[in-house]
Design brief:
two-stranded antiparallel ribbon, 37% helix, binds S-adenosylmethionine
């Protein structure tokens, strides 16, 4: 049996909610400040939507940014401490919901855009989430994912889907109990979209000008009309 599973990801975020809030508020993650925050904002704002659902919203920074541009947004996350911080900051709506229990029946609303910014980390949780997204999107709606670039994130391991051990390397020493994550190749990300009723509109690879490597990858899927 594999020693890693999706529950370990949630357990890790429970422990690390506080240092995560500090890391985001104090701009401690350089690649976000240099490249990836702008990349995800540009991708969402470029779609001219009237409503956004941010899945795995963390402490809510993206929802707040989108609200500033006039797009009403809802953030959901499994960690009550992160959602409580987001609610306290204001600007947008937030709910404590795990991917595992997210559904149209739970939210009773649909959105023009669903976005996941570095929040799809597991195996089964991501597979089942993909199945639910079409029911949370309006017709022609977009599903945007920003995640670790598989070619860069692969490191010295073989280029094949599978669980990887986590690390908080590059983060402050306040972080502990790093979560495992499920590595997916570019082909696997694409087939998650295609097998769940999406066309892939765009793939973006924003470059970190300092390293000359992609800082992330963005997939922009469009829900096929049924
Ligand atoms: C790397 S953080 C990203 C947070 C936010 N999207 C951002 O850009 O700052 C990953 C987030 O995914 C959330 N998450 C992970 N697994 C989850 C699950 N099964 N259900 C709901 N949220 C989950 C974590 O609680 C955490 O807030």
């Amino acid at each position: 049996m594999n020693k890693y599973n999706d529950q370990q990801i949630i357990d890790s975020w429970k422990i690390n909610a506080k240092p995560w809030i500090t890391a985001i508020e104090k701009d401690e993650i350089e690649s976000r400040v240099l490249v990836t925050n702008k990349a995800i904002i540009d991708a969402v704002v470029g779609i001219k939507s009237k409503s956004v659902l941010d899945i795995g919203c963390g402490e809510g920074w993206l929802v707040r940014e989108l609200e500033k541009t006039g797009i009403p947004s809802l953030g959901i996350d499994v960690i009550p401490e992160l959602v409580a911080f987001a609610k306290k900051e204001g600007g947008g709506r937030y709910k404590v919901i795990a991917y595992e229990s997210l559904s149209y029946e739970k939210l009773k609303e649909t959105f023009d855009v669903v976005v996941c910014n570095f929040s799809l980390l597991g195996r089964e949780s991501v597979i089942t989430l993909f199945e639910k997204i079409p029911f949370l999107l309006n017709n022609g709606g977009s599903f945007i994912i920003q995640t670790i670039h598989p070619v860069v994130g692969c490191g010295d391991s073989i280029y094949k889907d599978g669980w990887r051990g986590g690390s908080w390397g590059g983060f402050s020493d306040k972080f502990s109990n790093p979560a495992p994550w499920y590595f997916r190749t570019i082909k696997s990300w694409k087939s998650l979209f295609l097998s769940n009723g999406f066309s892939i509109d765009k793939i973006v690879e924003p470059l970190n000008k300092e390293t000359q490597l992609p800082a992330s990858i963005l997939f922009i899927g469009i829900k096929d009309r049924n």
